[in-house]
Amino acid sequence: MRAPALLLLAALSLNCAAAPFAVRLGEERVVLDAPPGFADTLDLASPRLRELAEALTSASNRILLFALTDGDLRRFTTGDTPELRRYLLVATPRAMQRDSLGLNQFRAYAADSASPLGNPVDPAEMRGLLNQSPIGRPVLLRELRRTPVMLSLLIASRVPPRVEDRPEYLLYTQTLMLVRGKALSVTAYTIYGSPADQDWLLGITQRWTEDIQQLNGR
Hints:
9 strands
């Protein structure tokens, strides 16, 4: 009975995560959803997944969504090791979660968040640049979008390799958004193997951030 029960748990988890859900931040309710093919994992109350999510963001942030691919969630709930090639995170600053931010406050938050990254480098050959950078150091490749309520950045870093002597790179977008007066950090990650991974990342970032705006009537 153990295997069918675990499979049922996985199916229920995926079905529950497929619907938008609301998170209360102060007096506001912000609506979030994972894109198709992903499922939020916070309701699983897994210390292992919580630890992974917390490693992706500052301890000063509150995690609102941490989503794995449907395939990785099935692997996790059946006791297998997730591949963790692609995953998603939404967080908000704990110090601001009860405040209602105006445009000037959001602009200051976005500038403070982006300033440690420095200026975009947009290299012709990303691997060569990252091989010269320390493991784990984020490199700002380029600014994707800037509006009064959004700043979207493309970032990369070299990460510890899973296979010895085979460099591995993480490519991700960080989109800072003002949603219902709340500052959200919306981040999509992919292990970089080819330009197709970057194309996927840029596409899902645009669709997902637009979906969040629509869900919240903005």
